[in-house]
Design brief:
Protein name: 2-isopropylmalate synthase
GO biological process, one term: L-leucine biosynthetic process
Largest sheet: 8 strands, parallel, barrel
Cofactor: Mn(2+)
Order of helices and strands: EEHEHEHEHHEHEHEHEHHEHEHEHHH
Strand order of the largest sheet: 2-3-4-5-6-7-8-9
Pathway: Amino-acid biosynthesis; L-leucine biosynthesis; L-leucine from 3-methyl-2-oxobutanoate: step 1/4
Helix content: 40-55%
Oligomer: single chain
Number of strands: 12
GO cellular component, one term: cytoplasm
Radius of gyration: 25 Å
Bound molecules: 3-methyl-2-oxobutanoic acid, zinc ion
Strand content: 5-15%
Length: 385
């Protein structure tokens, strides 16, 4: 099985979610949990952004003993110096340089031509290499960059000694087959490409971040970048838990896995949601409250007979106790009887029929029928008869 390295950027790109601001104590708490989750690399922040972020990155860098801590930097010396300061005391420091390469960014944002972009990037890698043995270089908006310029930039970064080269779909624009094709093209055309690791970094503007990351893995990416719960700029980043579980559940298809401790996924998701204030939608894949909940009678009946009928992975794998059979208007007798048994009632067939009819009446009026509702319904009935 090929190992896919996990680069977590919850503390950097994740913190860029509008409305999110993590202080040093909160960053540290998340960092310790990410360490338990087993991420290989952790981007702790953007030190040049503010003195507070520089201090937080430094606290995380000093605290993490068994993983690589990364600081983000634009392709300029002052930013690189800030990362150098922030990563003092790190067991395994790495700098993450980025510069935009697409025509839109070159023309409207950087106001640079291709040569200026190439030379600026080259100078920044050279400068960073004086202080860091590990350098990642990102071609921001690679997804909308011309193929020949991508190859030129990646070739330069390989020659300058970058260790990881990241190909972001910064604006979440590409379709999986298009994104995968870029990795295939780079692997086939750039000399000595195997000297570096290729990385995927996707945004979710069209809801394709996970599919795009998986397409990149299929086409030779060695590393995935993403965040817990998929938080991040605009519609967010690739949700790491989704990629890890897709690789786990379909390992025969992908032939690749992360080394995440999957049973820590649920706990990590809850902590990130609590500290960032970003609520996880109920129907969110893997970590949403409904991801392992079943409401309809047909599904509940299947689940009670054999869980593989409606679950492709077990809740225990991600650290949850069990699946939930939620009682609502679509639920059937089988799940109702099962629920009653758990509550300590073993009713006769006639009692069950009467109780089930009362339950259906109630379920028509409520979205979800709780254990307390069932108890009230049964006890009323017992008093009536
Ligand atoms: O989305 C992006 O391109 C980024 C870069 C800084 C890697 O976050
Ligand atoms: Zn990003």
């Amino acid at each position: 099985m090929r190992k896919i390295y996990v680069f977590d950027t919850t503390l950097r790109d994740g913190e860029q979610s509008p409305g999110v601001n993590l202080n040093t104590r909160e960053k540290l708490e998340i960092a310790y949990q990410l360490e338990k989750l087993g991420v290989d690399r952790m981007e702790a922040g953007f030190p040049a952004a503010s003195p507070g972020d520089l201090a937080s990155v430094n606290a995380v860098a000093r605290a993490m003993k068994n993983l690589t801590v990364i600081g983000l930097s634009r392709a300029r010396e002052t930013d690189i110096d800030a990362v150098k300061e922030a990563l003092q005391g790190a067991a395994d420091p790495c700098i993450h340089l980025f510069l935009a390469t697409s025509p839109i960014h070159r023309q409207h944002k950087l106001r640079m031509d291709k040569n200026q972009v190439l030379e600026t990037a080259q100078a920044s890698i050279r400068y960073a290499k004086k202080y860091f043995s590990k350098v990642e270089f990102s071609l921001e908006d690679a997804g909308r960059t011309e193929y020949d310029f991508l190859a030129e930039m990646v070739g330069m970064a390989v020659r300058e000694g970058a260790n990881v080269i990241n190909i972001p779909d910064t604006v979440g624009y590409l379709y999986p087959s298009e994104y995968g094709a870029i990795f295939k093209f780079l692997k086939e055309t750039v000399p000595d490409i195997d000297r570096v690791q290729l990385s995927t970094h996707c945004h979710n503007d069209l809801g394709m971040a996970t599919a795009n990351a998986l397409a990149a893995i299929q086409n030779g990416a060695d590393q995935i970048e993403g965040t817990i719960n998929g938080i991040g700029e605009r519609a967010g980043n690739t949700a790491l838990e989704e990629v890890a579980m897709a690789l786990e559940t379909r390992s025969e298809f992908f032939g690749a896995k992360t080394s995440l401790v999957l049973s820590e996924i649920s706990r990590t998701s809850r902590l990130v949601s609590k500290l960032t204030g970003m609520v996880v939608p109920g129907n969110k894949a893997i970590v949403g409250a409904n991801a392992f909940a079943h409401e309809s009678g047909i599904h509940q009946d299947g689940m009670l007979k054999d869980k593989t009928t409606y679950e492709i992975m077990t809740p225990e794998t991600i650290g949850l106790k069990e699946s939930k059979l939620v009682l609502g208007k679509h639920s059937g007798r089988h799940a109702f009887r099962d629920n009653l048994k758990e509550l300590g009632y073993d009713l006769s067939e006639t009692e069950l029929n009467a109780a089930f009819a009362r339950f259906k009446d109630l379920a028509d009026k409520k979205k979800e029928v709780s254990d307390e509702d069932i108890l009230a319904l049964i006890e009323d009935k017992l008093i009536d008869t």
